[in-house]
Amino acid sequence: MELEVKDMTCGHCAGVITKAVKEVDTQATVDIDVATRTVRIESARGADIFLSAIQESGYTPAVRA
Predict the structure, then answer these.
(1) pLDDT for 19-60, tens place per residue?
(2) Number of Cβ within a 10 Å radius of residue 61
(3) 26: how many CB neighbours lie within 10 A of its CB?
(4) Where does the HMA domain lie (predicted)?
(5) Are the C-beta atoms of residues 13 and 59 closer than 8 Å to each other?
(6) What is the DSSP letter of 10?
């Protein structure tokens, strides 16, 4: 799945988001591009749980269409 996190602006943000994703699914693969504010997650779990986890970390994620 591909998420857009418009308020992710730096490496620290990327680290916080990666940690949030890994807390939900330790086996997930996370690829973050801060420049395009894109988070790609490979996981068997649904997008909703990752959206919630990232939001709880203080960011505003959305599924990229």
Answers:
(1) 999 999 999 999 999 999 999 999 999 999 999 999 999 999
(2) 23
(3) 8
(4) 1-62
(5) yes
(6) S
Q: Does domain 2-63 have CATH number 3.40.50.1370?
A: no
Question: Residue ranges per domain, the chain?
Answer: 2-63
Residue type, 41: I
Distance CA 10, CA 48 (A): 24
Q: How far apart are CA 52 and CA 44, in angstroms?
A: 16
Phi (first) and psi of residue 26, to 5 degrees: -65, -20
Q: What burial letters (b/e) apply to 50-60, b meaning 16+ CB within 10 Å?
A: bbebbeebebe
